[in-house]
């Protein structure tokens, strides 16, 4: 069912989704493909676990990849002066925007 090839980094994220968040291997790969844009929008190679945790939170909160990417873009614009914001914080901040 997987139609796109994952990079080694994306494969590591998919493995983390499987090992730590209860998704099957195939589900992990599919989620990484679906959330590829938000992953790249964060623009860093943080530990794969952090991206996996963020994806799992998006799935749990029913936040679509498009909504996640848009919110990350909004949070990134608001926090341009603070380059020390980690990816999970960005996604949590983006998720908080949805609830308002």
Record the SSE blueprint.
Blueprint: H1 8-21, H2 25-34, H3 36-42, H4 48-60, H5 65-78, H6 87-98
Helix pairs in contact: 1-2, 1-4, 3-5, 4-6, 5-6
Shape: globular
Instruction: State the domain count.
Output: 1
* Helical content band: over 70%
Average pLDDT reading: 81
Please tally the β strands and state the result: 0
Low-pLDDT windows of residues? none
The portion of residues forming beta strands comes to under 5%
Number of helices: 6
Largest sheet, strands/sense/barrel: none
Query: Radius of gyration over alpha carbons?
Result: 13 Å
Distance between the termini: 36 Å
Q: What structural class do you assign from the helix and strand content?
A: mainly alpha
How would you spell out the order of helices and strands? Answer: HHHHHH
Overview of the molecule:
- With 100 residues, this protein is an all-alpha fold.
- The chain has one domain (8-98).
- Helices cover 70% and strands 0% of the residues.
- It has helices at 8-21, 25-34, 36-42, 48-60, 65-78, 87-98.
- Helix 1 packs across helix 4 (48-60) and helix 5 crosses helix 6.
List keywords for this structure.
100 residues, mainly alpha, 6 helices, globular
Brief digest:
With 100 residues, this protein is mostly helical. The protein has helices spanning 8-21, 25-34, 36-42, 48-60, 65-78, 87-98. 32% of the residues are buried.
